[in-house]
Amino acid sequence: MPWSPHAALLRDLVLGVLGTAAFLIDLGADLWAAGQYVLSGRYLWAALVLALLGLASVAMQLFSWVWLRADPAGLHAPQPPGRCLALLHLLQLGYLYRCLQGLRQGLLVWQQEVPSDFDMAYADFLSLDISMLRLFETFLETTPQLTLVLAIILQSGQVEYYQWVSICTSFLGISWALLDYHRALRICLPSKALLRLGSSVIYFLWNLLLLWPRVLVVALFSALFPRYVALHFLGLWLVLLFWVWLQGTDFMPDPCSEWLYRATVATILYFSWFNVAEGHTRGRATIHLMFLLSDSILMVVTWVTHSPWLPSGVPLQMLLPVGGVCFLLGLVLRLVYYCWLHPSCRREPDRVDGTRDLCSLEWRQLPQNRRMAQLAQNFFPKTRDEAALPWKGEVNGVL
């Protein structure tokens, strides 16, 4: 059954609240784990947890600040002065400010009996940026944090209660970010049907089932060879960064910040697939899948030839089949999704969820998040909606 307009707006508002709460809970769990490591004298583990948190937070604040500076003047009015915004981002509060701004706009739209087109478009604009920042945070902090916790558990041979909390919150954050990002991409394109329950479940499962073996592989490698995992990541990251550069990405407003985006995408590609350019998507996805699979197989061969047992006494024979089954099942579900659940037909736009008619001049004068629209066109290559693409010379936001 389709959602009524008012119910759909309330749903979006509740999802925004839950997404912000999930971020805060995951942050609290990581800080709690770092504190417990310090109290138990494991200072290196605490330093690694805090380093991952710090690097991801700095990158997220930089993205948020660059986007705010690139948006047209007056788009986000009223908002704090530039110095206050700079201070918020310096204090690592820029993402939370965006979350509160999005919730406030969503509440404003929900309270209106007949929401205006501008208010709804601006609410979509804010939610799309938040979804992108959440995805970056997921692969810059949450996924590496999960890998680190698993490596610590495998190496020590015991699981503390706070580590269970960290694992659960990490899985929650990853799952939420993947679904929210995919839903955001569909909002950008009027020719794409919204994410339904069945396709949501399949999309979530194949992403998680393909991501989990990769996380397990890196965690096992870290537990067995903790001194070489940094070299392994750096070597693959440089290769992936070069590959992203060859694709000619043009996501950020200036060349310097574009390298920040490419470095972030290279980190995402270390764990999962992320499409950054249009055309030949299937070929690039296949190359990436084979690249990660080959790397994982090489690490498995290294474990088997050097040490068939983990330091904690857990046999690899118990873990490797689990990872292999998850990978195969995820691959099957991915094929099912793209063959039958990945829509490519046009439909009438639904004004409730932000997929409005982009052909009208009135709509072109409303806030449009062209950053996400460009990624959406790359993600959905079958049916191109030229009206949703940025015009040459346009800036992101209000024309």
Automatic annotation (TrEMBL):
InterPro entries recorded for this chain?
A: XK-rel, XK-related_scramblase
Localization:
Cell membrane; Membrane
Q: Does the keyword Chaperone apply?
A: no
Q: Which UniProt keywords apply?
A: Apoptosis, Cell membrane, Membrane, Transmembrane, Transmembrane helix
Which topology term describes how it sits in the membrane? Answer: Multi-pass membrane protein
| Family, similarity comment | Belongs to the XK family.
Species per Swiss-Prot/TrEMBL record: Diceros bicornis minor (South-central black rhinoceros)
Task: Please name one Pfam family that this protein belongs to.
Answer: XK-related
- The record lists the membrane-crossing segments as 43-68, 161-181, 201-221, 228-247, 259-277, 289-306, 318-341
Entry GO CC: plasma membrane
By what name is this protein known?
Answer: XK-related protein
The record lists the catalysed reaction(s) as: a 1,2-diacyl-sn-glycero-3-phospho-L-serine(in) = a 1,2-diacyl-sn-glycero-3-phospho-L-serine(out)
